[in-house]
User: Fold this.
Amino acid sequence: IMQGSVTIIGYGLAVLGAGIGIGIVGGMTTQSVARQPEVAGTVQTIFILAAAFIEALALLGFVLSLIK
Assistant:
């Protein structure tokens, strides 16, 4: 039972980190588009790519928490 509890806490921390990361990246994307609207398409593409990498790391944390 203790092993499962530690795993859930570890996955919770991984998801928290991913949420903070996407929040920071999203905020910086909004700032950059507000400063230079003409590069919105390029910045949006970079944001989607960064968000995908962050989510992949969160999913990797979930998978590793399931492996004993």
Q: What stands out?
A: The CA atoms of residues 12 and 39 lie 35 Å apart. The chain has a mean pLDDT of 87. The helical segments are 2-35, 40-66. The radius of gyration is 16 Å.
